[in-house]
Amino acid sequence: MSNVLPIFKKEVRSYFSSPVAYIVITVFLLICGWFFSTSLFVIGQASMRNVFQIIPFVLTFLVPAITMRLLSEERKSGTFELLTTMPISDIDIVIGKYLSALLLLAVALFFTLGYAITVKSLGNADAGVTVAGYIGLLLLGAGYVAIGVLASSLTENQIVAFIVSFMIIFFLSLVDKVLMFLPAGLANVFEYLSAEYHFNNIARGVVDTRDLIYYASLIVLGLYFSARALQRRF
Amino acid sequence: MIQVRELHKHFDQTRAVDGVSFDMKSGEILGFLGPNGAGKTTTMRVITCFLPPTAGTVEVDGLDVRTQSIAVRERIGYLPESAPLYGDMNVVDYLMFVAELRKIPSADRRRKVRHAVDVCGLGEVLRKNVGQLSSGYRQRAGLAQAILHDPPILVLDEPTRGLDPNQIVEIRQLIKDLGRQKTVVFSTHILSEVEAMCDRVLIIHRGKKVFDGPKSELSYGRTGKERIYVELRANGDVAQQLRGLPGADAVHVVSRDGESTRLHVEAPRGRDLREAIFDSAVQQGWKVLEMRRDTESFEDVFRELTKDEQ
C-alpha cells in the first residue's frame, strides 16, 4: 500500500499543473451555480434541493472527463511499460490513480459548500439533510470514479474511455426513471442497480447498509477489474 | 545472474520468441543482436516482467519472473525502447517520482537523484519538461531513471537509438562504465555497437537463437574456418599447387588478371598456413604481393546468420 502514495501524488500534481482541474471545477461550479441561483432568485427558495438534484446529473459527464486519461494515456504514450516494470503491483497503480481523481472531485464538491452556507444564512435549512446530501454525493462520485477508472484501463483511446464510462454511468443514473416500463420482477433488480436510487435514499437521511454495500461493490469491482485489465499489456 | 530456459512467447499466431535459452554471469555485458522483429524486445520485456512468458522459465538472481515478479523488478533497471517518460513532468520531479516508486528512503532520494543526474550529464536540463527534451537528453533521462536505485542488472533496449554520432559515443562510454559493476543486457541492430561495447554477443532471428558466444568467436563465422587471403604473381596454376599444401581444406580463386592471382586459402580453425604458403611461394619462385589472415566482417556473419532460408 505504501506504493499508492507516489502514484497518487504524481496524479494530483498532474491534474493541478494542467488546465484539467481548473476547467473541471469551473464547469462544475457554473452549472451548479446556475441551478442554485435560479431556485434562489427566481423561485425565492433557499434550499439545497435543486443543487443535490442536478449534481448527480452533472457527474455523469464530469467524472468520465476526469478519469478518461488516467490509465489510457499511460498505454498510449508507452509510459505504461516503465510503470508496470517498477516494483509496484497493478492494484497499487489503480488505487493511486483512483484516489487522485476522487480528490479532484472532492475539491469540486467542496466549493459547493458556499451554496450550503448561503442557504444556511438565509433560511432555516436542515443541516442534517445537507450533510446527508454531501455524504451521498461523495459515495455516488466514488462509485462513478471507479467506473471511469475501469473504462480508462480498457483502452488506450481517451475518447473511447470517456464514452464507455459515460454510457455505463448514464445507464446507472437513469435506470430508476424507466422502472415503470419494466415487469415487476425485473423492476426490483434494476432499482437496486440504479446509482441514483441509492443516492436518493442516503440524501433523504436514511443510511442503509444496502446502499453502502451497493457503492462499496461498485468501487471494489471497478478497481479489481481495472487491475485485471492492466495485466493485458497491449 | 540471469537464466533463460526454453523461453517461448507467442502472440496469437506469431511466435515472437521461440525457445531461447541463455545464461548470464554477474558483471557481463551482453549485446543482443537481431534484425527488426527478431524477438529482442520481447525477450527483454519478459526479463523485466512486463510480459509473462508463454512457456519456459526466466530467473533473475534466482528469482522467477512469474512468481517473484516484484523482487525481480527491484533488481533491474530498465530502459524501454524510445524511452517513454512522462512529458508533463520536469526532469527532477520525474526522477524524484521514480525514486519514490523505487522505495529509496526519503533521506537518500536527493543524493541518489543528484548522482544519477551527474552520471548521465543531465545538469543543464533539470527544470525542463521531459516532453521538451531533445532525443539525446531524453535517452539520458531514461538511463538516469534506470540506474537511480543502483540495480545490479541493467536492461537497455536500443539505448543509442535516435542519437547523433557524438551522443552515441557518449552513451556507449557511459554504458561501458556502468558495465564494470553491473550486469548489462542491451539490444541493438547497429553492429559496430556490439564491437565497441560488449564481450559477449547473442544473435536471435525469428525468435530463435542463432549465435551465442564471445565477440571474437563471431568473426570465424558459421564455417568456423581460418581463412587466408593471398595475392601472388606467378605463371601456371597456382591454386592447384596450393591445394597440395598439408592442412589446406579449400582454395578459392577470387580473381585473376594478367599474371597476378588472388586467392582464399581455408584451413581448420587454429591452424595458421601463412608460413607454409610463403615457403611454397619461395620454392616455386612466385612473388607474394599481399597476404593476410582474413576474418569475416561482422556484417557478413550477421547477414549469413540471419538470412532467411528461401
Query: What is the CA-based Rg of chain B, rounded?
Result: 25 Å
Order of helices and strands of chain A: HHHHHHHHHHHH
Distance between the termini of chain A: 26 Å
Number of helices, counting only DSSP H or I runs of 4 residues or more of chain B: 11
Helix content of chain A: over 70%
H/E element order of chain B: EEEHEEHEHHHEHEHEEHEHEEHEH
Largest sheet of chain A: none
Calculate the terminal CA-CA distance of chain B, rounded to whole Å.
38 Å
The helix/strand class of chain A is mainly alpha
CATH superfamily of the largest domain in chain B: P-loop containing nucleotide triphosphate hydrolases
- Mean pLDDT of chain A equals 90
What does this structure look like?
The complex is a heterodimer of chains A (234) and B (310). With 234 residues, chain A is mainly α. Chain A has one domain. Chain A has helices spanning 4-16, 19-42, 49-67, 69-77, 79-84, 90-111, 113-122, 127-154, 158-174, 184-193, 195-203, 209-230. The radius of gyration of chain A is 18 Å and the shape is globular. The mean pLDDT of chain A is 90. Chain B folds into two domains: 2-218, P-loop containing nucleotide triphosphate hydrolases (Rossmann fold), CATH 3.40.50.300; 225-294, Alpha-Beta Plaits, CATH 3.30.70. Chain B has a six-stranded mixed sheet with strand order 6-7-8-3-9-10, sandwiched between helices. In chain B, strands 2-1-4-5 form a four-stranded antiparallel sheet, covered by helices on one side. A four-stranded antiparallel sheet of chain B has the order 12-13-11-14. With 310 residues, chain B is α/β, with parallel strands linked by helices.
